[in-house]
Amino acid sequence: LLVLMAVLGALMTLVSYLFLRNQLRPIKRMAAAAAEFGKGRIVPYHPSGAAEVRAAGAAFLDMRARIERQAQARTLM
Questions:
Q1: Rounded Cα distance, 17 and 23, in Å
Q2: Is the overall model pTM greater than 0.85, yes or no?
Q3: Which of 23, 35, 38, 45 has the fewest other C-beta atoms within 10 Å?
């Protein structure tokens, strides 16, 4: 029974590690794109991952587009 519990515990730990790694990767990419945009560089970013992460990524892209339009309008003035 103890061996079975140890094996199942190790298996569940591995599965949860893989799941979390796949969920955090899109968040890290979005953070990197936001950091680069803060430095004045535009890097390609496509939202992916869970629905919430995709929604945050789409909001980031909308925000980036609005800031770019505002900067262009200010330059034209």
A1: 10
A2: no
A3: 38
DSSP-derived secondary structure letter, 39: T
User: CA dist 6 to 10, 14, 19, Å?
Assistant: 6, 12, 20
CA distance 42 to 4: 51
* 37 Cβ contact list (under 8 Å, min separation 6): 43, 64, 67
By the 10 Å C-beta count (0-12 exposed, 13-18 middle, 19+ buried), 69 is classed as exposed
- Tell me how far apart the alpha carbons of residues 60 and 7 are, in angstroms, rounded to a whole number: 42
- Mean pLDDT, to the nearest integer, of 25-50? 93
